[in-house]
Amino acid sequence: HTSQLEMKAKGVHANQTKIGCNNSLDHAALVECLVTFLGDSLGVCTAAFAAKIGGRKDVFRIYGTLTLLTSISLYFSLNQVLTDILGMSLRLFSGGFRYTIWLVTLEIYPTVLRSTASGFTSSMSKLGPLLGSFLPTLSIQSVRS
User: I need a surface site. Which of 19, 72, 106, 129 has the fewest CB within 10 A?
Assistant: First the structure.
């Protein structure tokens, strides 16, 4: 714990708590959380509103195209501010895209197929990280031999 003398030297009184980011890693994590939360939330809300007004197929096409264009732009971004803005835009468009996919599948497919596909995609989403943890080790071993 920090003593009261050290806190006074730093300009912090004993009854104050210091709130904020102490280093660049804290700041980057905070920005990433805000970008993710705001982008996803706004994406779902705007997609729901746009789907109600303009129809699901058009929203699906528009959000899909904007997701692709934002992904390409993010690859070529030059500074951190632009990267954060494009990251939030990507979350917005991909969140809306995923929401419209969810809406369309609810309307088109029967419950049995939806539940089977949901289980399959859930299991595949766990297979990816599992393989991702072993593939670098296997590739290093195959290069050495």
Answer: 19
Which residues make Cβ contacts (< 8 Å) with residue 86, sequence separation at least 6?
A: 70, 73, 74, 77
* Separation CA 26–CA 32 (nearest Å): 10
- The DSSP letter of residue 16 is -
Helix (H, G, I), strand (E, B) or coil at 74: helix
Give me 30's structure tokens.
């905070």
Query: Taking the model in full, what pTM does it have?
Result: 0.56
59 and 96 Cβ atoms separated by less than 8 Å: yes
Give the pLDDT confidence of 101-145 residue by residue, as tens digits.
888 877 888 888 888 887 887 788 788 778 777 777 766 666 666
